[in-house]
Amino acid sequence: MNIKLLAIGKTDNKQLEDLTDNYIKRLGFYIKFNFEIIPDLKNVKNLSEAQQKEKEGKLILDQLSNSDVLILLDENGKQYDSVGFSELLQKHMNSGIKQLIFVIGGPYGFSPEVYNRANGKLSLSRMTFSHQMIRLFFTEQLYRGFTILKNEPYHHR
């Protein structure tokens, strides 16, 4: 199985980017992982929130194939502890899917079309974090999930 993280827009914080890259590199020991950035939209000040979500949604949907399992990182998604998240990863790996895609949306969330295509929603916290920080938190939790599945000492139970 391949896991991909899609995110709208690049990060402007080099320290967060470096920390995220560290976990991305570590993930390579466990699974094929790709992190792809969908470029920010241009001239967004001329767009309504709905128009921006629609345009970003099209860019997200263009990245998917019909067989991909899509999970949105969404404030209204299901919350897991780290062990529960590792069990979710194992469930998807056991299901035989080729690609599991997680998406961090733009500043206004996702379009109705993206919600309709999604196979699930995941919330990392009830708190609000910047989309740039979510990249780091998610990749760390993904790494932690695989160390749990391999019964490695990174995660102390």
UniProtKB/TrEMBL annotation:
Which residues participate in S-adenosyl-L-methionine binding?
A: L73, G105, L124, S125, R126, M127, T128, F129
- Reactions performed catalytically: pseudouridine(1915) in 23S rRNA + S-adenosyl-L-methionine = N(3)-methylpseudouridine(1915) in 23S rRNA + S-adenosyl-L-homocysteine + H(+)
The places in or outside the cell where this protein is found are: Cytoplasm
Provide GO CC annotations from the record: cytoplasm
Does the keyword section mention Amino-acid biosynthesis? no
Q: What is its EC number?
A: 2.1.1.177
HAMAP family found in the cross-reference section: 23SrRNA_methyltr_H
**Assembly and oligomerization:** Homodimer.
**What's this protein's function?**
Specifically methylates the pseudouridine at position 1915 (m3Psi1915) in 23S rRNA.
- Protein name listed in UniProt: Ribosomal RNA large subunit methyltransferase H
Organism of origin is: Aquimarina mytili
The gene name reads rlmH
